[in-house]
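Design request, tokens follow.
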């Protein structure tokens, strides 16, 4: 149980895919302007990460590895993720059309969101069991959610700021993202020693 907590907390805080490993930046910068869009996108990413892990781990373990087809890992994982994103998009369009419209082009971009693919591949590379992989995927998804919600709050405060002309728009957004990212480096070392 202790190792699962360490995996979860490490994925959320220390190895945050957005703020520490810089994966999934496209949607992080594109959908973090409004709190509701950031929350909706985060929930969709969590769902896809969990489903992708639940499908890709058995495929790798029981199909690719025994048949020495590990070199097909990236192609197979991308196809699985693309199919799952299509499922999420269909469900979202049917049951939450306003959110589907608000997310716009960023929802199909989950297919190419390197954070989702990165989690699936990292679970295999770390030799996690199925349960550990699911816990890590949930932690990575929650870390993505935390980063999106925090940065959404920062961006809403930035709208009231009067930066110099050269910092308006994207430059100020990137500087704010860097500061939020640096704040997460303070968690390095804490999680590993939490239960020491």
């Amino acid at each position: 149980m202790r190792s699962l907590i360490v995996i979860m907390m490490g994925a959320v805080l220390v190895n945050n895919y957005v703020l520490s490993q810089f994966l999934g930046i496209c949607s992080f910068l594109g959908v973090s302007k409004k709190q509701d869009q950031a929350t909706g996108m985060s929930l969709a990413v969590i769902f896809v990460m969990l489903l992708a892990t639940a499908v890709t781990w058995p495929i790798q373990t029981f199909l690719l590895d025994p048949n020495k087809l590990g070199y097909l890992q990236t192609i197979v994982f991308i196809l699985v993720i693309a199919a799952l994103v299509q499922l999420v998009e269909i469900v979202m369009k049917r049951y939450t059309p306003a959110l589907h419209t608000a997310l716009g082009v960023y929802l199909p971009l989950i297919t190419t969101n390197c954070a989702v693919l990165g989690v699936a591949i990292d679970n295999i590379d770390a030799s996690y069991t199925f349960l550990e992989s699911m816990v890590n995927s949930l932690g990575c998804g929650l870390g993505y959610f935390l980063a999106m919600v925090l940065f959404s709050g920062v961006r809403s405060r930035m709208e009231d700021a009067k930066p110099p002309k050269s910092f308006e728009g994207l430059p100020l957004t990137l500087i704010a993202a860097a500061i939020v990212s640096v704040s997460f480096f303070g968690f390095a070392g804490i999680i590993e020693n939490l239960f020491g």
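Comment from the thread starter after seeing the answer: thanks! The two ends are 14 Å apart (CA to CA).
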